């Protein structure tokens, strides 16, 4: 997700095509072309500019409404429900890719969760996250916790509080507990019980991108793979 105001201009984007099998946008105001995955302008008057990234989460509607009861949900256009493909990925999975990943241990369309922080990029296989829903890791000098809520509902946090990295482990299906204070932390990354809750502590969110392995690697060529 990107902020669409840049250099004082508020841009209006439309689908322009596909570049390296990734969504390509064109803005009405300058006619420039922008790569969706990186937010970079790759052609046109604004070539080289980069949109500012906005933090976003992929959540179930139930989780979203629980956390944001006054939130709004974007629905499909009434009367055109049959025009929306609900299960398009199986067909896409069969298409060839334009990026050669034969020198890596993953097939090109392996689903990964990509994180780039601390000057380092890492991919987490969806199958690994299903088997290991809470992962403590370190990218560059940034200690992170990668926490799966099931399916594609996934969040990551910088697990430092007051400069110290927390050692976290599952307490129950909805909470983590830190070894340092015994406090409970919810899926928003905030302490809800214990000394850290009294201090109103929350971990800083880290952006996660669900992507195919070939696409993540194309735009983060120095990436590694967790556990490999």
TrEMBL record:
One Pfam family from the record: DUF3179
Listed InterPro entries: DUF3179
Domain of life from the UniProt record: Bacteria
Protein name: DUF3179 domain-containing protein
């Amino acid at each position: 997700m990107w902020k669409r105001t840049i250099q004082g201009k508020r841009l209006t984007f439309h689908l322009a095509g596909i570049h390296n099998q990734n969504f390509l946008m064109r803005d009405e105001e300058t006619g420039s072309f922008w790569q969706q995955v990186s937010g970079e302008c790759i052609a046109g008057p604004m070539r080289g500019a980069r949109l500012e990234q906005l933090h976003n989460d992929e959540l179930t509607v139930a989780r979203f409404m629980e956390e944001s009861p006054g939130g709004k949900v974007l629905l499909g256009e009434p009367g055109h429900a049959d025009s929306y493909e609900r299960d398009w990925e199986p067909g896409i999975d069969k298409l060839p890719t334009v990026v050669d990943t034969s020198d890596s241990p993953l097939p090109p369309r392996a689903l990964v969760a990509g994180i780039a922080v601390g000057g380092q990029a890492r991919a987490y296989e969806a199958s690994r996250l299903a088997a290991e829903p809470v992962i403590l890791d370190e990218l560059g000098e940034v200690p992170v916790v990668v926490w799966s809520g099931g399916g594609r509902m996934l969040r990551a946090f910088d697990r430092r509080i007051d400069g110290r990295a927390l050692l976290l482990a599952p307490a129950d299906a909805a909470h983590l507990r830190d070894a340092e204070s015994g406090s409970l932390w919810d899926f928003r990354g905030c302490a809800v019980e214990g000394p850290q809750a009294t201090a109103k502590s929350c971990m800083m969110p880290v952006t996660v991108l669900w992507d195919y392995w070939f696409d993540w690697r194309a735009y983060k060529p120095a990436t590694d793979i967790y556990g490999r």
